[in-house]
Automatic annotation (TrEMBL), chain A:
Sample GO molecular function, one term: carnitine transmembrane transporter activity
Annotated region described as Disordered, given as residue ranges: 1-21
Pfam assignment, any one: BPD_transp_1
Sections of the chain in a coiled coil: none
Keywords, sorted A to Z: Cell membrane, Membrane, Transmembrane, Transmembrane helix, Transport
Species for this entry: Nocardioides iriomotensis
Superkingdom of the source species: Bacteria
Lineage: Bacteria, Bacillati, Actinomycetota, Actinomycetes, Propionibacteriales
Compartments, record wording: Cell membrane; Membrane
Entry-linked SUPFAM superfamilies: MetI-like
Annotated TM spans: 28-45, 136-153, 160-185, 205-231, 275-297, 317-337, 358-377, 435-468, 480-501, 521-548, 600-621, 633-650
Family: Belongs to the binding-protein-dependent transport system permease family.
Name this protein carries in UniProt: ABC transporter permease subunit
Domain ABC transmembrane type-1: 156-336, 474-654
Length: 678, 332
């Protein structure tokens, strides 16, 4: 056997190395050689030792995990730790419910909340004016009115409340940790970073049941699961900001004899303020993206109508609250960004403070009037009912129906081509090779692409995947992630370059990209299912919708960042547009493209669980199964851990391959990892 | 300086105008205090015999229909404060012990959960079996109506292999595709297919929404589809689905999961409640204990919600109004 396997080292498939570098084969050529050898080995060994595990079979480790959870559950009345966390959950619940009675639900015996929509809107607009100026105030006004106009006032307020409570707690816990991350040694840094990676890639469905066990159902569970997901960006980005304060500044102030507390408070925190705000911004966005997941455990907010519409197959009904989540995300994003810019300006004394105070004081008068009215008058307390929400929902439903009817045939063809040409061959290679062959090939690829730096984590992660007993499913999920990333990168290159070269395209596409990133995937799952049926391809498309915006933005920013004088120079030599793009703009934005690919991979992976809900099977299905049936929890947890391991492996390989490109290391350029789903 | 001053004057004037207009407009409203008073009176009258009723709402429309009908009656007739909680099954059962969930109104059979929470099954005793709710769950293999019409012999499992190729999809690797459904449902399809020697492969849709969409599209576009489906389910009111005959169910034929080669049994759906709540003096205990209705009743309310686009509250209220005798029987 071995003699048959050995010769193909001189595979014909290996492309001729470019003549310019005759001595060293480039990395991609080595990678192709590895893949060539892998294919030959696969041809002789496929189907052996694939470690397939049946739908309802478990390994011992998975059973142990289930048993462990059962033991914790059985001890809930006596376990002091659960008593403690439960009390904590009660406090979260009380905080949320108090806010709800203030602004979102009737405070019995009143038929309405203490403060009606008019008062809340007025206060919000005033805050917008105070922190970020009149443009933002207008945006805030428009957003709040749209919450009421579309008929989701109370759900919108609930989502705001949950976000507010979770982000407040995140700041309380996160800032000390960020300081720790910003001041600790390099080793401590990489340990904290790995822990944050785990938090961010672990699918929420895995820890949703334990959260309910420890913190209770409803608002408390919503706050905690949002908190877990939203905390890492703050710690990571704020920590980076604190670390990036120039050492010369610190030395200079140290020489004045300050204590380390003074140094932190007077120098490091103020100088990192801008980055900290970016972290806060990302935390808020991450919190919003948990809205629909939290609805699975009765978390209040806009996620509830989205989920309820999903199980009625009512696309329009899910679309309206889904879009309001987008509106809220855009509003909070622009407000925090503008607020940080405004405070920067104020700190430099560019704003007339006295004038500003007067404006705010005058503006406070109508706010107080509105507050007062919203307490006493029905029309100002409960948003007047109207038909806008349902009619938009109907329009969306008929549009979806028309779209599915009109394009059903074409999409079927596209699905089959991608499935036959990309998914099936890749899946066969990855999942049908014996596990040791696939493992060896992945390790070889890691070594070729990223050197020893990449090999180490790859080996550790592969061992982990093997131990948790879902190797075959893991390889199928990996395949779908890779295929999706290929599609994402094609889109990123086409649209990214287009956006960078045409300002008008950029203006047109950005809002769409923002929406694609923040809209809950549940909104578009049903049209996807109608077009493509419950298949792996559907899962990939859903992932691409979520992952492509990030990649497109990164490529667009990278290409736009190529200095215009370089482009001018190439133009003067008579380069065509095509040459200009391929020889100048793309090579010069290589760092951004690699980063885009890295993010694309991780975002695709984060949609694995969504994939499990639309027929993709594999790890995503295992996670959903574990969430749905208590006896399968251990398997679901194993699948979740496996997703984390795949994520860390891909990330480390991609980063090592990017030669420690500075961009890939800057966490402010590293959007939060995972989706609203999972 | 002059300019800013003028700006200020204008701003102040504008504010004054806005304030005046809003105050005038405000005079039109003003019933909040009356309603507050009314609510207080009503609360005093009801005497708080019922208190809170925490109703789990599991994510399917039929369940929603049952939950809101019981909730509406509890609220209107007994003066309960009903809290609907959107939860999956597992989470609902966990809530029995903590007082967060009082009632699960439709349970399709969760032996593992019963083992954990029902005392007679060895659990911690936080859940109590409150009997059947009158609905009968029918699980089976279904094909879209058009297929049954054009190929009537497809409704017998013995003829399925003849059509296996027609059921093939991009996911089924050359065999016929059998569409499995949500992971949380009871199912033995792989075993049945193996043991009956059928040339099919089970592909899991992963969720109810995915399954419903697949059947809707199949009926509309005349596509080949066979899969796991069930009744009561509102979609039966919208598209025709036909059940494929499997070898009949006999007692014990599903005891060994790997050896199953028979149809699914009809499942009487049950009510489970929190033990603490069932021992409390809430007047809603009797209502939940007595609640019983038919598949047709549930399908009707479910159709109000889905086809007619009514809110669950309105749909339940309509049914309650139209069926006073049934409601009276529950209140006993």
């Amino acid at each position: 056997m071995t003699t048959v396997v050995a010769p193909p080292r001189a595979e014909a498939k290996e492309p001729p190395p470019p003549p310019a570098e005759p001595r060293h084969l480039p990395r991609w050529a080595w990678a192709l050689i590895v893949i060539g050898v892998w294919i030959v080995v696969w041809a002789f060994t496929k189907g052996q030792d694939t470690l397939t595990l049946g739908a309802r079979e478990h390994t011992q480790l998975q059973n142990d995990l289930t048993e462990f959870r059962n033991a914790v559950l059985a001890s809930r009345d006596t376990n002091p730790f659960i008593q403690f966390t439960y009390q904590l959950g009660e406090w979260f619940k009380e905080a949320v419910e108090w806010c709800q009675r203030m602004i979102s639900i009737p405070d019995f015996p009143r038929p309405v909340p203490q403060i009606g929509w008019l008062g809340v809107t007025a206060v919000a607009v005033w805050i917008g004016l105070a922190v970020a100026g009149w443009r933002i105030a207008l945006l805030v006004a428009a957003s709040f009115v749209s919450f009421g106009l579309f008929g989701y006032w109370s759900d919108s307020m609930d989502l705001l409340i949950v976000t507010f409570v979770s982000v407040s707690v995140a700041v309380l816990i996160g800032m000390p940790l960020a300081v720790l991350l910003g001041t600790t040694s390099r080793l401590g840094n990489s340990i904290i970073n790995t822990i944050l990676d785990i938090f961010q890639t672990m699918p929420t469905f895995v820890y949703l049941l334990p959260i309910v066990l420890f913190f209770g159902i409803g608002a408390s569970a919503a706050v905690v699961c949002t908190l877990i997901y939203a905390l890492p960006p703050l710690i990571r980005i704020a920590g980076h900001g604190i670390r990036s304060v120039p050492s010369t500044t610190i030395e200079a102030t140290d020489s004045a004899g300050q204590t380390s507390w003074q140094r932190l408070r007077k120098v490091q925190l103020p100088m990192a303020r801008k980055t900290i705000v970016v972290g806060l911004n990302q935390t808020i966005m991450a919190a919003l993206s948990m809205a629909t997941i939290a609805a699975y455990v009765d978390g209040p907010g806009l996620g509830q109508p989205v989920l309820q519409s999903l199980f009625k197959n009512d696309v329009g009904g899910a679309f309206v609250p889904g879009m309001l989540i987008v509106v809220m995300a855009v509003m909070l994003d622009r407000t925090t960004t503008a607020a940080s810019e405004a405070s920067e300006k104020a700190a430099r004394g560019r704003i007339n403070m006295r004038q500003r105070r007067i404006v705010l004081a005058v503006a406070a008068v109508p706010v107080l009037v509105a507050l007062w009215m919203s307490r006493f008058y029905t029309w100002a307390a409960a948003f007047p009912e109207n038909n806008l929400g349902p009619s938009v929902a109907d329009a969306v439903n008929s549009f979806t129906e028309w779209f599915v009817d009109a394009f059903g045939g074409a999409t079927e063809w596209f699905k089959n081509v991608i499935t036959e040409a990309l998914i099936n061959p890749m899946q066969s290679l990855l999942a049908e090779s014996p596990w040791y062959v696939t493992a060896t090939a992945i390790m070889a690829l890691a070594l070729v692409l990223g050197g020893l730096r990449a090999l180490m984590p790859t080996v550790i992660c592969l061992i982990g995947i093997y131990i948790f007993g879902l190797w075959h499913d893991a390889m199928i999920t990996l395949t779908m992630t890779m295929v999706g990333t290929v599609l994402v990168m094609v889109m990123a290159l086409v649209f990214g370059v287009w956006m960078a070269r045409r300002k008008s395209v950029d203006l047109l596409l950005r809002p769409l990209l923002d929406a694609g990133q923040t809209i809950p995937p549940f909104v578009y799952l049903i049209p996807m299912l109608a077009l493509f049926g419950p298949t792996r391809f559907t899962a990939i498309v859903a992932g691409v919708i979520y992952a492509a915006p990030v990649a497109i933005k990164l490529v667009a920013d990278g290409v736009a960042g190529v200095s215009s004088s370089t482009v001018e120079a190439s133009r003067s030599t008579g380069a065509t547009t095509w040459q200009e793009i391929t020889k100048v703009q793309l090579p010069m934005s290589k760092g951004s493209i690699v980063l885009a690919a890295n993010q694309g991979l991780l975002f695709m992976l984060s949609m694995a669980v969504i994939g499990g809900m639309v027929g993709a099977g594999a790890l995503g299905y295992d996670v959903v199964l574990g969430f749905s049936r208590s006896e399968e929890w251990g398997k679901g947890a194993a699948a979740g851990i496996t997703i984390v391991l795949i994520g860390i492996m891909l990330d480390r390989i991609a980063r090592a391959a990017a030669n420690q490109d500075p961009i890939t290391h800057n966490p402010t350029r590293r959007p939060w990892w995972r989706s609203s789903m999972g | 300086m002059r300019n800013t001053r003028n700006g200020w004057m204008r701003g102040a004037r504008a504010v004054a105008v806005v304030a005046c207009v809003t105050v005038v407009a405000a005079c039109g409203g003003g019933s909040i205090e009356e309603q507050t008073q009314a609510n207080e009176d009503q609360a005093a009258e009801a005497g708080g015999e019922c208190g809170d009723l925490n109703m789990a709402v599991n994510p399917w429309v039929g369940y929603e229909a049952s939950a809101y009908v019981v909730g509406t009656v509890a609220q209107e007739e007994l003066g309960c404060t009903v809290n609907y909680k959107d939860l999956k099954e597992d989470v609902s059962w966990q809530g029995f012990g903590t007082g967060e969930v009082d009632v699960v109104i439709e349970d399709w059979g969760h032996p593992d959960l019963e083992k954990k929470f029902v005392e007679s099954k060895g659990g911690d005793g936080s859940a109590t079996d409150f009997g059947e709710n009158g609905n009968v769950g029918i699980i089976g293999w279904y094909v879209p109506g058009w297929l049954a019409e054009e190929h009537p012999d497809i409704l017998d499992y013995k003829n399925l292999n003849k059509y296996a190729k027609d059921f093939a999809t991009s996911e089924s690797g050359g065999q016929g595709q059998f569409l499995g459904s949500d992971p949380s449902y009871v199912q033995f399809d792989e075993a049945i297919i193996d043991n009956l020697g059928l040339d099919f492969k089970v592909v899991f849709s992963g969720g109810e929404a995915a399954t419903i969409t697949a059947f809707e599209q199949a009926q509309k576009n005349k596509e080949w589809l066979i899969g796991y489906f069930w009744e009561p389910q509102y979609i039966h009111a919208e598209i025709p689905l036909e059940q494929v005959k499997l070898p009949p169910y006999t007692d014990g034929c599903q005891d060994v999961p790997a050896k199953v080669a028979c149809a699914y049994p009809d499942t009487p759906l049950k009510k489970f409640v929190s033990t603490d709540w069932s021992e409390s003096d809430s007047t809603a205990v009797g209502l939940v204990k007595n609640f019983k209705w038919t598949n047709d009743d549930q399908n009707l309310v479910a159709a109000y919600i889905t086809s007619d686009g009514m809110s669950p509250e309105d749909a339940a209220a309509k049914w309650v109004k139209d069926n006073p005798d049934k409601v009276q029987a529950w209140l006993g």
